[in-house]
Design a protein that fits this description.
- 2 copies of one chain form a homodimer.
- Chain A is 64% helix and 7% strand.
- Chain A has 181 residues and is mainly alpha-helical.
- The termini of chain A are far apart.
- The model of chain A has no long low-confidence stretch (mean pLDDT 92).
- The structure holds a DNA duplex (28 and 28 nucleotides).
DNA sequence: CAGAGCATGTAAGAGGTTACATGATTAC
DNA sequence: GTAATCATGTAACCTCTTACATGCTCTG
């Protein structure tokens, strides 16, 4: 039940179309929540039916019409109530770890190559987060900006920890893989 | 598509009933994959239909009959092939971060209490992982045990990072919440 | 005698992924 | 002219969660 509330959270900052929201989910919000455009459009219809958002059709030339969504008062109330509900801790769910767990059934080379791919992806994400950090979160921050900085920092520390873990496992594999026991 | 393969991975180590598997998922495998008993029973039926596992009915006195599942050759092949497919990186999906992101709409006290709950939960999980570490992964380890140790270490570092992050945000909130700007 | 543990399942619904579908504009 | 970007959606399917359902044994 978090997707509609993530959408409401974005809409508190500015009005947006489904397309805009999808951009948001692949960028700024993307370091802690993801959604595809299909999910977003479906969710927006439901939310509109519940009265949490309303939209205005914006005609365009050449391009198809936009639906610009805005938060309603009911939507704000809903978001506020939701904020007070206790949030669950999300456990890790990492396919790579299942593969490691059963790793003796395959060759060490397969494991090494899986880890290297992950290492690279974590490096890229870390770099992306660091550039967001440099761009938006330098100097004195308002309370609101501070909160958003902390959510980014969670992403930063997650990627850094993942990266270091990959490096350590790779080093261990290189030492032990040859003399497999 | 990872749940059936996680089950196959457990079954490579020993035969198990649906109940046993559910225990496994809430314990050892639980630090990187989760599944409820409902999911497991459903999945086992499907896997049996596909020929990846077979079961023997074990009658018991007093208790209901068990179905003891074992890996078939086809199941082993399936697992081996799956191990070679590239694993995707799982992005973070943390409800708490949405709440922080929209945190200006509620009082700092709500945020503090959410963070404190999370802090406590991460502390508990960390302690549980540490006792697993002390119990099973001391001294010289075989290759197989080493791989499993690395999967546990991923959980350890994740919990530690989460915990430190919670502490830092709490410290920041205590400094800034009163003079909210 | 109440509650935890053993042991299995069904059913409904929510949430998420993948594929399909359209059509104009702009940049290379 | 080919691909990317803008902009919206439908349909089918898979996966996961929540609630319901049964019934025996052992421990306190």
């Amino acid at each position: 039940m978090s997707l509609p509330h993530a959408i409401l959270a974005i809409l508190t900052q500015k009005e947006a179309t489904g397309y805009d929201l999808a951009q948001n989910f692949s960028q700024s919000i993307g370091h802690f929540w993801q959604a595809s455009h299909q999910q977003i459009y479906r969710e927006l219809s439901k939310m509109e039916a519940q009265g949490w958002v309303s939209f205005a059709v914006v005609p365009q030339k050449g391009k198809p019409d936009k639906k610009r969504y805005a938060l309603t008062l009911a939507g704000q109330d809903e978001l506020k109530n939701w904020l007070e509900e206790p949030a669950r801790v999300t456990p890790i769910r990492e396919t790579l770890l299942i593969k490691l767990f059963a790793g003796t059934l395959t060759s060490p080379e397969v494991l090494v190559s899986q880890l290297e791919t992950h290492l690279e992806l974590h490096r890229e994400k870390l770099a992306a987060y660091q550039s967001l950090e440099n761009e938006y979160f330098q100097g004195e921050l308002s309370f609101a900006a501070g909160l958003q900085y902390w959510s980014l920092k969670r992403g930063l520390s997650y990627e850094l920890a993942s990266l270091e873990w990959c490096e350590q496992v790779l080093a261990w594999l290189n030492k032990h893989a040859s003399k497999a026991d």
